Amino acid sequence: MKRVTEDHEGDPVRGVASNYVCDLKVGDTVQVVGPFGASFLMPNHPRSHIVMICTGSAPMRAMTEWRRRLRKSGKFEGGKLMLFFGARTQQELPYFGPLQSLPKDFIDINLAFSRTPGQPKRYVQDLMRERAADLAALLKDGASHFYVCGLKSMEEGVVLALRDVATEAGLDWDTVGAALKREGRLYLETY
Fold first, then answer.
1. Is 125 within a domain?
2. Which of 51, 80, 100, 170 is buried most, with the most CB atoms less than 10 Å from its CB?
3. How far from the centroid of its chain's Cα atoms is residue 183's Cα?
């Protein structure tokens, strides 16, 4: 099974990691490298709020906290789950399958597309600013965890959007951002 989508010009785009995995045979040895350990773990408390901001869906799909919560309760009764996902086009969403099928009262999904023909470019930080009131409430709540994953080029824009949201809400970003990092509630995994 090959995973192929099309780019904004209709040319096929093969997913590197997904095709690698699809091409494996039973018993093949796989070498895994990269960050590991306790740097990108989900909080243990079921009432924790989780904000996921990404341009690649694999790390967020790999986080199984939402599955555990849904399986345990049958419906989401814990903290708020909010997702900001950026892609070039809507055609890139097949890689994002399982999260799209979750109930809307379980996860708040916000999609930004930067290469939709005839439309202005929209990035995750644009959506974050549009949802400033919701994010400000989460920035004020000590049970909120923010996960940023994707291209290195998005990191600065996302952090600036969080700063703008905090400032607009009357919060000092230097204080809030430092507390998030110190308390292990802001996770940056960009490449």
1. yes
2. 51
3. 20
